[in-house]
Amino acid sequence: MTSTARRKSYGVKGAPYAFLLPATILFALFFALPIGYAIWLSFRKVQVSGLGLGSGARKEVWAGLENYTDALSDSELLNGALRVLGYGCIVVPVMLGLALLFALMLDSEKVRLAPFTRLAIFLPYAIPGVVAALLWGFLYLPDVSPFYFVLDKLGLPQPDLLDGGPLYLALSNIAVWGGTGFNMIVIYTSLQAIPAEVYEAAKLDGATPLQIALRIKIPMVAPSLVLTFFFSIIATLQVFNEPTTLKPLTNSVSTTWSPLMKVYRDAFGEGDIYAAAAQAVIIALATLVLSFGFLRAANRRNKQEAAR
């Protein structure tokens, strides 16, 4: 092989790596390195000597697992996790149930104005989370909400949605309103990929539209349901925008309402980036374990059904 042919061969073989290089650099700089730095900070702490005044009075030292043990025994972090759990028990089933229902309705042959309806359902997802929270926060305030004005004129009770138990419904409504459209598009795309011959065979066998939906469509889009459930779990564990935006409107939302709000307060309010880093690592590990466990369970079930 001549030197020219050898250089051409190396150039062809190295082309994929050259295309991957920019993405790899960006991944390392803006994803891998920040994660590694957060893990490093989680094992450090500030040691104060004397009154903490003067040069050398405050220095960063190795803390070992101290930040992790403090985080795991922190009642505020635990209570925040429990609140997010209750929030997720409302958001995930309602959002995915509505997404599946809308996708099945749009996939029906009798539906009219399907493109406009798809856009109308998906549009809230395009609105930034902070803007959506401000919009709904305005509608939740009794003094300025048009809904409360109508209820007052009709002589109906006016519940305070930003206090106590209704607060969970108020926050969940924002997430459901914004996330249903995205999940609906994922499920609807899977429905469109089902061959038409499957439906024709079912109709020849005398299956009704309801039977086709329950026995054919839903089982065949199960992978999409698993995917949307996976994304919904991650989004629920990372809830931050909605409670943070509504916090100035009510005293029921504390600075530690969710685990990520606790991390934010400790890092930027208290100035303890080391404890905040340990808490962030714990939240990331919890998200990874829950997501991996769910995927394992879903894959095991799919294998059992395939073996039947």
TrEMBL record:
Membrane-spanning intervals of the chain: 20-43, 84-107, 119-141, 167-188, 220-240, 273-295
Gene Ontology biological-process annotations: transmembrane transport
Compartments reported by the entry: Cell membrane
Provenance organism: Streptomyces spinoverrucosus
Cross-referenced InterPro entries: MetI-like, MetI-like_sf, UgpAE/MalFG_permease
Main location, first listed in the record: membrane
Protein's UniProt name: ABC transporter permease
Pfam families: BPD_transp_1
Family under the similarity heading: Belongs to the binding-protein-dependent transport system permease family.
Domain of life, source organism: Bacteria
GO cellular component: plasma membrane
Record flagged with keyword Transmembrane helix: yes
Ranges of residues in domain ABC transmembrane type-1: 81-294
Keyword terms, alphabetized: Cell membrane, Membrane, Transmembrane, Transmembrane helix, Transport
Record's bilayer topology term: Multi-pass membrane protein
